[in-house]
Specification:
Its main location: membrane. GO terms for molecular function: methyltransferase activity. This is Methyltransferase. By secondary structure, the chain is of the alpha/beta class. It is 32% helix and 13% strand. A seven-stranded mixed sheet has the order 6-5-4-7-8-10-9. Helix 8 crosses helix 9 and helix 14 (428-448) crosses helix 15.
């Protein structure tokens, strides 16, 4: 009996053909497949199959998968032509931050402050090496103890720099033999920051700073944050406060804020925009941040306007006051005059002034921009949704964005409504599925973060071993954050972790969604170094 294949061939080529013709027909088909298959492009090489995430609950399988991932990463990181292991950098690179080389920038003609800016395009291509920790480095104290006490050996600040500093925040710190304490025993430091926060709340018409949420304030961009004491207090109020300060070779605000376990990154806008989308923050705070407001025709304020959401607040605290007629008082008045004049041109209103603190509010009325004079501050047309160190623009964004929603009307939950998700082009099903996947993944991650694997005699955790403490880890960088699902999973599991959600510039632009959830996030090109300290 002939096989079914021969029966089909006989039906195709004719029932009365001899067997030799059937064999010839079959051979011809194979030849045609080979010829045409070689002439077509390799389509399958370009088909991307999205793997379904497989969550391993079994420790052994998880360990095996982790080993496979490790060797794959090691192969990629070693490079095709690189031989051997990477060596350690010299001691001079303990606090090295790529893309910030003031000397090289000056030689290339950068000036007017731009020599202190980020210039990855002029960074020297030195040898690759691993940055070593400082000689006296110690593992930071766990949160929340590490918020108030850090080891001096972990940061680049000397005793002389500390004592000679004129910053209020620095003078409030207590320097001990090998520690810097930000929270004195008598509570004076804490009370000073708390009083300042309460003052801002009262100037906004609130009963106390615990009502910031009710005013729509969840995310705060703290420009020139000192060493994070104000941000630390806001974090205690369940707000997201992101510290952004310029690069400093020593005594860095960002380095110390990170050491305290607070969200922070290097950034300034001397000539280029910060790497955040428009309408990102509910409040911008600037205490003694040293900005000269009448430079560059108000473009610094235009950048703040771009970052603020409708109805958001701009809080500025000027230098310590002096008696009337004193040079400092006159300097303060001359500094604030252009600020007050320009805010009227961009639909901001001064809502309160007390002592040295001023609060402006960005308009929540979209019609305000249509009444602006055309010859003053122009409205932009496009290009504000994905800024990655673009040149500062002299125009404001107006109210054309779909995300133009006053902060007082936005949900206070990180779980966005279906209407809010529609604004971002995300379906509720995808959003929910992303969270569920990350909740399961986090449970597997956390089961491995046991102190046993960091001890002198590491071993595989068993069922009888205690679970890792909630404060085992303080900060996590999600290099491809997507919807911020990992961040949301940490919150649901009540872990004392903040996540730096990074959205690659070549990936889908989901950073506006992440920031609208109240999470910290930033654009970044992973072909360049991340703007932070080792």
């Amino acid at each position: 009996m002939r096989s079914p294949l021969l029966n089909k061939l006989s039906l195709t080529c004719g029932r009365r053909l001899p067997v030799s013709w059937l064999v010839l027909c079959f051979t011809s088909v194979l030849v045609l497949i080979a010829v045409f298959g070689s002439s077509f492009p390799k389509s399958f090489d370009y088909v991307t199959v999205t793997p379904v995430p497989e969550i391993y609950s079994n420790y052994r399988r998880l360990k095996e998968q982790a080993a496979v991932d490790y060797f794959q990463l090691r192969t990629v990181s070693s490079g095709a032509g690189r031989q051997g292991e990477l060596g350690l950098c010299g001691k001079e690179r303990e606090n090295y931050v790529p893309c910030y080389n003031v000397t090289a920038n000056v030689l290339l003609g950068f000036k007017d402050g731009e020599e202190f800016d980020r210039h990855c395009e002029v960074s020297s291509q030195g040898k690759f090496c691993l940055v070593r920790p400082p000689k006296d480095y110690k593992i930071p104290l766990r949160w929340p103890a590490g918020r108030d006490v850090i080891w001096t050996g972990n940061v680049k600040i000397t005793k002389d720099q500390f004592l000679s500093s004129g910053s209020i925040t620095k003078r409030l710190m207590l320097l001990e033999e090998n520690q810097i304490a930000f929270h004195s025993q008598d509570g004076l430091i804490f009370d000073g920051v708390k009083d300042y926060s309460r003052q801002i709340a009262e100037m906004m018409g609130l009963g106390s700073d615990s009502e910031f949420f009710q005013a729509g304030v969840r995310t705060v961009l703290d420009i020139g944050c000192g060493f994070g004491s104000f941000g630390a207090h806001l974090v205690s109020l369940k707000l997201m406060a992101l510290c952004v300060a310029a690069y400093e070779a020593t005594g860095s605000q960002v380095q110390i804020a990170l050491e305290r376990g607070l969200p922070a990154m290097i950034g300034d806008f001397i000539s280029r925009q910060l790497p955040y989308p428009s309408l990102s923050f509910d409040m911008v705070h600037c205490a003694q941040c040293g900005i000269v407001w009448d430079k560059k025709e108000g473009m610094f304020l235009v950048e703040f306007d771009r970052l603020l959401k409708p109805g958001g607040f701009f809080v500025i605290t000027s230098p310590i006051s002096k008696p009337p007629g004193h040079a400092t008082s006159l300097k303060k008045r001359s500094m604030l005059t252009p600020l007050a004049q320009f805010t009227e041109k961009i639909c901001w209103s001064l809502i309160a002034q007390q002592d040295e603190t001023f609060i402006w509010q960005k308009t929540a009325d979209a019609h305000c921009y249509s009444s602006l004079k055309k010859n003053e501050v122009p409205l932009s047309k496009e290009g504000y949704d994905a800024p990655y160190y673009q040149t500062l623009m002299p125009c404001i964004i107006g109210a054309s964005s779909k995300r133009w929603i006053p902060i007082q009307n936005k949900s206070s939950s990180p779980d966005l409504s279906s209407v809010e998700l529609e604004v971002h082009g995300v379906s509720p099903e995808d959003f929910f599925e992303d969270l569920q996947v990350w909740k399961l993944t986090l449970k597997n991650y956390w089961s491995l973060l046991t102190p046993l694997i960091f001890s002198d005699h590491p071993k595989r955790p068993g069922d009888e071993d205690p679970l890792p403490p909630f404060n085992m880890v303080r900060n996590v960088m999600d290099m491809n954050a997507h919807y911020g699902g990992l961040n949301a999973a940490f919150l649901e599991e009540m872990k004392s972790v903040w996540v730096m959600n990074v959205v690659p510039v070549r990936a889908r632009n989901t950073l506006p969604l992440i920031l609208d959830r109240g999470f910290p996030g930033v654009y970044h090109d992973w072909c360049e170094p991340f703007p932070t300290y080792p």
